[in-house]
Write a structure and sequence with these properties.
about 725 residues, TIM Barrel, Immunoglobulin-like, eight-stranded parallel β-barrel, eight-stranded mixed β-sheet, about 25% helix, elongated, disordered N terminus
Length: about 725
């Protein structure tokens, strides 16, 4: 079955019976190649690790499969590895290095000089008094040489200096009681003692120790306009002075809202002017609005996050990696900061990583890994037109000839807007706010042709798109969009032909204890007097097709989304069928609960249909009231109802049809003479093999059977429109 999810629910539940047992099973997003293999032609994929990560077999296997670069999270920081003069804590640092050596994984050395977690003893003498910068430099050189020489065999790049630049938000500062322009540098002990010379010295010492290693300046908030320029100016100044800075490390401490593609790309392009190596060194995506060095820890027991938050995170990861791939000429490494949410410095309830607290891959890992390289460069064709289901006068949503959909929503105070229609299993298309405060976005790629339900999720709230009409699906009134199809003209209303009409019929159901509703298509000419066999004028009587909707839908679905009346009118006008009546009733499907598929028997609807509805239709309309002039067919769950009822009550219906609703096999039919015609069909993205095998087996057993596999469609209304078009031409013959 194609498990196409529209609006967070199953559009028409299940398509093929043998696969129903698989519905709802957890998905292993680790299945498939590792991230390092997916990105082998782009850049290395790294992870920051701690002692536990390299001690647990489960975590070790994840590291080995997914990553080809490792960073020690804390073990190599100066304060950890060199806490006192002459005292070195190599044990943990060595264990991580040895793990990498044993498994053929290269390392990023993090970090040699940082204002935090630093060996602060370097600044004072034995009496605790400040030392001169020359003494500090001597100690710093010894530290850098010792660390680099010990690990350079396994290290390919060093974060030499970390976070030396000031954050945004302080254009001025007080010096000696006077307000002056703020320094671009962080006012650390390093800077206060040495000015920016300490940066140059650290890089010089690192190059002395490792002539071939890649030397990186690393910092956060690199996409902030002010800090970006301060980093740019510093690195440019240093390189012009001969300081061996090879590249810039852009810490990726972002969130689900920030940065956007323009902000990120602006920073990358700016740094490309002065370096040809960029590392994304500390990637995680918070589910709050903080970024960079801001800290709002979310510790404690892991709590589930809202589904739309996960969608925002998946989309942000997808956007970021698309930009990273675009700039693979300069981006040489992307490193996730920690292995899982359990380890994250941000706390488990910020849910920042593609691997959760139980070391299970999230869908975001799959999205990062299974990218479409061709789609990265694809630009939708600029032939946009309003969706044909739009409200009068509404320009958006729009569709183009390639099948892309484009949306525009006014929600100026919103933090997020998601259209639950999209590709890649992300839960929809995430819109972005433009400069005018309007949310805009386009599907990642072409959609399947035909009709689709969707709605908007605005800051977690479910609303319909005011630009388009509402259609009953997913057990509620949903927005609708029509993606152009090559055969769409056949399903369009034609002004040059006669048209039938659709009537709403309300009837009392004793079995349900309430009024029920159906829609009845009556062909053009219904009720007119015609000459009978005896030459007398009489009213023509018609065969009847009972046509059922799927789960989440109702009696309005076939007439509106399915265009059943238009299909009938066009077939009759083209001389492809003789007129017949179509009855489209509510199938009592929507109280059905997921997880109880094995108990579904359609007994309630069987009683309503056969004991109540058919007598009403035969009494109210000019029908031929016998089984050889009566057919039943249904889509998805309506197909399940059709199969169950026709097999149990073959005396009622002489023609049977399943549209993405399973198949018939000869051994299921007790009397081959009980049915004149069987139709089975589905989309080619569903179970085409099952359809073909069913038709083959039925024909071999002597049944009049026919099938259709709809091209380029899944579990959706274009599939079922095509099925109805073909099936109708073989009914009542």
């Amino acid at each position: 079955m194609n498990k196409r999810i529209i609006s967070g629910v199953v559009l028409a539940f299940l398509s093929i019976l043998p696969t129903m047992a698989q519905w709802g099973r957890p998905v292993d997003y680790f299945a498939g190649p590792g991230l390092k293999d997916a990105y082998k032609d782009y850049f290395t994929i790294g992870v920051a690790v701690n002692k536990n990560n390299i001690s647990d077999p489960t975590q070790i296997e994840i590291i080995k499969k997914q990553f080809n670069s490792v960073t020690a999270e804390n073990a190599w920081k100066p304060g950890e590895i060199h806490p006192k003069e002459g005292v070195w804590n190599f044990a943990l640092a060595d264990s991580i290095a040895n793990f990498c050596r044993a498994n053929g994984i290269k390392m990023r050395g993090h970090c040699l000089c940082w204002h935090s977690q630093f060996a602060d003893w370097m600044f004072t003498d034995k009496k605790g008094k400040p030392v001169k910068k020359e003494v500090f430099y001597e100690r710093l050189r010894d530290h850098i040489h010792t660390v680099v020489n010990r690990y350079k065999d396994v290290v390919y790049a060093w974060d030499v200096v970390n976070e030396a630049m000031a954050d945004d938000g302080r254009p001025f500062e007080f010096v000696n009681g006077k307000m002056v322009k703020a320094s671009p540098y962080r006012q650390s002990r390093h800077f206060k003692l040495c000015g920016d010379e300490f940066i140059a010295k650290a890089f010089e010492f690192a190059r002395e120790a490792d002539p071939t290693g890649v030397l990186i300046y690393n910092d956060y908030s690199c996409v902030d306009n002010g800090k970006r320029e301060r980093i740019y100016d510093m690195v440019k100044k240093m390189k012009e002075a001969g300081v061996p800075i090879d590249g810039i490390g852009m810490q990726g401490h972002y969130n689900i809202y920030f940065p956007d593609e323009e902000q990120l790309e602006k920073a990358i392009n700016r740094f490309k002017e002065i370096v040809n190596i960029i590392h994304i060194t500390e990637l995680d995506l918070r589910t709050n609005t903080e970024s960079g060095g801001q800290l709002m820890f979310a510790r404690g027991e892991a709590k589930p996050q809202a589904g739309y938050i996960g969608t925002l995170q998946e989309d942000q990861y997808a956007r970021l990696f698309k930009i990273f791939r675009k700039h693979a000429d300069v981006i040489k490494n992307v490193t996730f900061w920690n292995l899982s949410d359990k380890d994250s410095w941000l706390g488990v309830n910020n849910h920042p990583l593609p691997i959760d607290e139980n070391f299970k891959a999230k869908r975001s890992l799959q999205i990062i890994r299974d990218f479409d390289a061709a789609a990265d460069k694809r630009v939708p064709k600029d032939d946009w037109v309003p969706n044909p289901w739009n409200q009068p006068g509404q320009e958006y949503p729009q569709v183009n000839s390639e099948g892309f959909a484009r949306f525009r929503v006014e929600a100026p105070d919103a933090k997020s807007v998601i259209v639950t229609l999209g590709l890649g299993g992300r839960g929809g298309t995430v819109l972005r706010k433009n400069k005018d405060g309007v949310w805009e976005g386009t599907t990642e790629g072409p959609m399947d042709p035909g009709f689709h339900y969707y709605h908007l999720i605005i800051d977690g709230g479910v609303v319909n798109d005011p630009g388009t009409g509402n259609y009953f699906g997913s057990c509620r009134w949903e927005s609708g969009i029509e993606i152009p199809a090559p055969d769409q003209d056949f399903y369009a209303w034609r002004k040059d032909i006669p048209h039938g009409n659709i009537q709403q019929v309300d009837f009392w159901s004793e079995s349900t204890g309430k009024m029920q509703t159906c829609n009845v298509y009556l062909p053009d000419g219904y009720g007119k007097l015609v000459k009978g066999k005896n030459g007398k004028l009489t009213q023509e009587r018609y065969p009847v097709l009972y046509l059922q909707h799927g789960w989440g839908e109702n009696e309005t679905s076939w007439p509106v989304q399915g265009k059943a009346g238009i299909i009938m009118d066009n077939l009759i006008a083209d001389g492809k069928i003789k007129p017949f009546i179509v009855v489209m009733a509510y199938g009592l499907t929507n109280d059905f609960k997921f997880g109880t598929i094995g108990k579904f028997e359609a007994k309630e609807f069987e009683k309503l249909l056969i004991d109540e509805l058919i007598p009403v239709i035969d009494k109210k309309f000019l029908t031929k009231a016998d089984k050889w002039n009566r057919a039943m067919a249904g889509l998805s769950m309506g197909g399940m109802e059709t199969k169950l009822i026709t097999l149990r009550r073959p005396e009622v219906f002489g023609y049977w049809g399943l549209l993405s609703g399973g198949t018939y096999m000869p051994e299921e039919i007790k009397d081959p003479k009980c049915v004149k015609y069987i139709f089975v069909g589905c989309g080619d993205k569903e179970n085409p093999d099952g359809i073909n095998k069913s038709v083959e087996a039925l024909k071999a057993a002597g049944f009049n059977a026919e099938g259709l596999v709809s091209e380029n469609t899944a579990h959706e209304f274009l599939t079922w429109r095509r099925c109805l078009e073909k099936m109708a031409q073989s009914l009542f013959k």
